[in-house]
């Protein structure tokens, strides 16, 4: 069944436009399938609407004004009757359509019957759930126990791994400290040996310097003495000193 709404798209009356918008908007809100038929641009639509509006529903001048509502060929009413049906929550009855589930137009007995059926279904589900509830609780407790054991084992394993890692780290640090001590001792021994060698070389150089200094001093003293002696003795002494050197 298709709802037909006859309206005038180019009407100059603000009141008619408002009524048409009210009808169309309400049908769209209810998600009712309908068809708009324009009487301003289509003469056939105008004539069909005038011919199918019942005589008792026509105004005094005999010309019905839009919007006019039909269900297929059956006349539903004009805006005034539509507005009254909307106020009474009986729009589906006005349109000749069955009300959808949950609508306010559904008889109270049917709504209560559906609610009673839902309650019975809920009670049956609760009973079935009660029978299997104990088994589910036992299974949940067993699963929780297994999970707790796994968590305990999982906690112990990381603790052991941490202890082993700490021990390995301590051993590595001890080995490094021992190696550092050995290296330090080796460096100290090498420095001592080098100091001994340097001291020995310095001593040799000092002795050589002293020896050369003493010889030079003796020679100088001899020269001075020779300068004080007579020439004859001086020449003989020079020969002796030269031969000694």
Commentary on this structure:
It is elongated, with a radius of gyration of 64 Å. It is an alpha+beta fold and 245 residues long. Helix content is 71%, strand content 8%. The chain has two domains: 3-102, 3-Layer(aba) Sandwich (Glutaredoxin); 107-211. The chain has six helices and four strands, in the order E-H-E-H-E-E-H-H-H-H. The mean pLDDT is 76.
List the helices and strands and how they pair.
Elements: E1 3-7, H1 14-29, E2 34-38, H2 43-52, E3 68-71, E4 74-78, H3 79-87, H4 91-95, H5 108-228, H6 231-244
Mean pLDDT: 76
Write down the domain tally: 2
Number of discrete helical segments: 6
Report the uncertain regions. none
- Strand and helix order: EHEHEEHHHH
**Arrangement of strands in the largest sheet:** 2-1-3-4
**Net shape:** elongated
Structural category is alpha+beta
């Amino acid at each position: 069944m298709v709802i037909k709404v006859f309206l005038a798209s180019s009407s100059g009356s603000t009141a008619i436009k408002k009524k048409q918008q009210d009808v169309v908007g309400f049908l769209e809100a209810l998600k009712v399938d309908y068809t708009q038929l324009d009487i301003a641009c289509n003469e056939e639509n105008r004539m069909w609407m005038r011919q199918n509006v019942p005589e008792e529903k026509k105004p005094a001048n005999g010309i019905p004004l839009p919007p006019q509502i039909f269900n297929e060929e059956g006349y539903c009413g004009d805006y005034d009757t539509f507005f009254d049906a909307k106020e009474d929550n009986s729009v589906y009855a006005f349109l000749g359509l069955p009300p959808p589930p949950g609508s306010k137009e559904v008889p109270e007995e049917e709504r209560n019957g559906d609610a009673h059926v839902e309650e019975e279904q809920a009670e049956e589900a609760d009973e079935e759930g009660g029978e299997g509830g104990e088994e589910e609780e036992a299974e949940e407790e067993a699963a929780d126990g297994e999970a707790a054991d796994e968590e305990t084992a999982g906690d112990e394993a990381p603790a052991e791994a941490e202890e082993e890692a700490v021990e390995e780290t301590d051993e590595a640090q001890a080995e490094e400290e021992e190696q550092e001590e050995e290296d330090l001792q080796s460096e100290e021994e090498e420095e001592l040996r080098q100091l001994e060698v340097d001291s020995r070389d310095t001593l040799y150089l000092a002795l050589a310097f002293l020896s050369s200094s003493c010889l030079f001093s003796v020679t100088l003293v001899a020269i001075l003495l020779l300068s004080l002696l007579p020439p004859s003795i001086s020449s003989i002494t020079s020969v002796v000193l030269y031969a000694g050197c």
